[in-house]
Write a structure and sequence with these properties.
The structure is a single chain. By secondary structure, the chain is an all-alpha fold. Helices cover 69% and strands 0% of the residues. It contains four helices and no strands.
Length: 101
C-alpha cells in the first residue's frame, strides 16, 4: 500500500492543545508526526503531553484504518472493473494499473 501523504488534525484537538505551553505543543506535534509517519511512540513527553498524544493517537489510528479500508475497497473495485474490460478485449493502461497495485 502507498504511504499516506497527509493526516487530519481536528478542530476538537484545539481544546486539548490549549492546555499546553508552546514548548509542550511543539514536542507533541513532533511526536504526532513521528507516530503518523514512522509508527514510533514518543519517549520524551511529560504527563500533559502524553495524555494529549494518546487522545490524538486513537483518532489517527481510527482514521488510518478507515483509509486502508477505502483503499482496499477501491483496489478491489478497480480489479473487478479491469477483469470486465479484459473480458471485452479492452487493454488497461499500465499507469492506471500501477495506481492500484
Amino acid at each position: 500500500m502507498k504511504v499516506k501523504k497527509s493526516f487530519v488534525l481536528y478542530h476538537d484537538f484545539r481544546n486539548w492543545f490549549s492546555l499546553l505551553t508552546d514548548e509542550e505543543l511543539g514536542r507533541l506535534l513532533r511526536a504526532i508526526f513521528d507516530y503518523e509517519m514512522n509508527k514510533t511512540l514518543p519517549e520524551n513527553l511529560n504527563e500533559k503531553e502524553q495524555i494529549a498524544f494518546l487522545m490524538v493517537r486513537d483518532t489517527l489510528d481510527r482514521d488510518r484504518e478507515k483509509y486502508e479500508r477505502v483503499c482496499n475497497r477501491n483496489k478491489e473495485n478497480a480489479r473487478v472493473r479491469w477483469e470486465k474490460m479484459k473480458k471485452y478485449g479492452i487493454e488497461i493502461p499500465a499507469e492506471e494499473r500501477e495506481k492500484y497495485e
